[in-house]
């Protein structure tokens, strides 16, 4: 008898290949309880620009694919950088395609902003996810400042405090399920 794994759809807010945000999601996927299955989505740049005129009963195929991944997941993780004191446009664009749906309503969600500063983007991410009715508490969201000095080229977290907060974040995220 196989045990059904808890499916987590993880979204990296950076379109940079092998970004610090991707490395954090990879670290989480490698260190989370084995009852979880994490799929990391890295194709934000392929989601078309949000256009309310196209957000009807037949939205673009890439939008349907993205929405279905969220809908079918038991939970969502988002890890994003901050660009010019804001969320990256590609992440905000993808989330805008979700506003007319209820796919995030009560969806167990973990939110991480990892950037040089990240404060403004983190506040914007929290506001958007509250608007989408995602389910998260204070212990399911994390701001990691100065991320470039905390992750090495190989993707290893090299800062002990960051390792500790990520371990706690993982434990708290697991406890939602």
Automatic annotation (TrEMBL):
One of its GO terms (cellular component) is cytosol. One of its GO terms (molecular function) is FMN binding. InterPro entries: Flavoprotein-like_sf, FMN_Rdtase-like_dom, NAD(P)H-dep_reductase. Signal peptide: none annotated. Residues 6-143 form the NADPH-dependent FMN reductase-like domain. It comes from the Bacteria. This is FMN reductase. The lineage of its organism: Bacteria, Pseudomonadati, Bacteroidota, Flavobacteriia, Flavobacteriales.
């Amino acid at each position: 008898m196989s045990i059904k794994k808890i499916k987590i759809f993880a979204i990296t807010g950076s379109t940079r290949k092998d970004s610090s945000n991707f490395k954090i999601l990879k670290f989480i996927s490698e260190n989370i309880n084995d009852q979880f299955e994490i799929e990391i989505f890295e194709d934000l740049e392929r989601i078309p620009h949000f256009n309310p005129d196209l957000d009807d009963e037949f939205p673009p195929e890439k939008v349907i694919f993205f929405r279905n991944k969220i809908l079918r997941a038991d939970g969502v993780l988002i890890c994003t950088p901050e660009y010019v004191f804001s969320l990256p446009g590609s992440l905000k664009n993808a989330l805008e395609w979700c506003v007319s749906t209820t796919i995030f309503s009560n969806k167990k969600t973990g939110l991480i902003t990892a950037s040089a500063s990240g404060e403004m983007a983190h506040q914007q991410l929290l506001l958007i996810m509250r608007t989408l009715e995602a389910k998260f508490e204070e212990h399911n969201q994390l701001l990691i400042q100065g991320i470039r000095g905390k992750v090495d080229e190989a993707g290893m977290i090299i800062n002990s405090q960051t390792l500790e907060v990520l371990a706690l974040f993982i434990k708290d995220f697991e406890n939602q399920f």
